[in-house]
Design brief:
This protein is α/β, with parallel strands linked by helices. The chain has a single domain, classed as Rossmann fold (3-Layer(aba) Sandwich). It is built from 7 helices and 9 strands, in the order E-E-H-H-E-H-E-H-H-E-E-H-H-E-E-E. The chain has helices spanning about 30-40, 45-50, 70-75, 85-100, 105-110, 150-160, 165-175, and strands at about 5-10, 10-15, 60, 80-85, 115, 130-135, 180-185, 200-205, 205-215. A 7-stranded mixed sheet has the order 5-4-3-6-7-9-8, sandwiched between helices. Strand 3 (about 60), helix 3 and strand 4 (about 80-85) form a beta-alpha-beta unit. The longest helix has 14 residues, at about 85-100. The radius of gyration is 17 Å and the shape is globular. S-adenosylmethionine binds near residues 67 and 159.
């Protein structure tokens, strides 16, 4: 089998047996995340700006992935419920959260994160009363863009691409969530002719956030 989960001294990791690539594991205490966390502000973090709430808002991350976005929002002070469809990715994040709870600096941050193994296009009934939803699946891109950095590259190779936006928007609307934030590569094409259009966009260096308002 090409991929396997292995418990390494650094934590649970996804190993690619065909390629000489570093194993994929999640570490919320990495130097780059700690630095980003220290500098966090509504002005500097596009995602925080898109949520547009004071610390303490409730955000539903419908595509948790490695949980970086959720961790950033929790570092700002938001409470984030993370839904992840892949059991493997869910286990990697679960292990990282367990390790982070042992770290005095990270503990109060990860206390604001709740993780579930769930396909978020199916109604997640406990998710009532959320202020915003975040959607960052791996969309099929019409135009070839640069490969994503490090861990995301391996995640993409492991999971593959292919997601449609509408089922997420419908699920968020059914849950009565007013604001849905969709993350896309910065240079991703405008939505197809008949597709629902965002109310506004925030553009960063490598990604773009499309903000939709739901009728609730
Ligand atoms: C690009 S990653 C998300 C990265 C994440 N924003 C982060 O900061 O690490 C996309 C993730 O969405 C998950 N996903 C895709 N469709 C999903 C669905 N319907 N329900 C839950 N998770 C889903 C994939 O399994 C994958 O782990």
């Amino acid at each position: 089998m090409r991929y396997g989960l292995e418990m390494l001294p650094t934590g649970l990791a996804l190993v690619d047996h065909y390629r000489q690539k570093p194993p994929l594991s999640v570490d919320y205490g990495s130097p780059s995340l700690r630095l980003r966390q220290k500098k966090i502000s509504a002005k500097g973090e596009l995602l925080v700006r898109a949520v547009k709430e004071k610390p303490g808002a409730r955000v539903l991350d419908m595509t948790a992935g490695l949980g970086t976005d959720a961790f950033i929002l929790a570092s700002y002070g938001h409470d984030v419920t993370m839904l992840e469809r892949s059991k493997t990715v869910y286990l990697l994040v679960k292990d990282a959260l367990k390790r982070a709870r042992q770290d005095a600096e990270l503990k109060p941050v990860v206390a604001r994160l709740t993780l579930h193994h769930w396909d978020s296009t199916r109604p997640f009934l406990p998710a009532i009363g959320f202020d915003a939803a975040l959607v960052d699946p791996m969309f099929d891109e019409k135009k070839k863009s640069a490969l994503p950095p490090g861990n995301m590259q391996m995640l993409q190779a492991f999971l593959g691409r292919g997601a449609e936006l509408q089922p997420f928007l419908t699920a968020a609307q059914e849950l009565g969530i007013r604001r849905t934030i969709v993350k896309r590569p910065r240079l991703d094409r405008a939505p197809a002719k008949n597709a629902v259009r965002p109310v506004y966009q925030l553009t960063g260096r490598s990604s773009r956030l499309d903000v939709f308002f739901n009728q609730v």
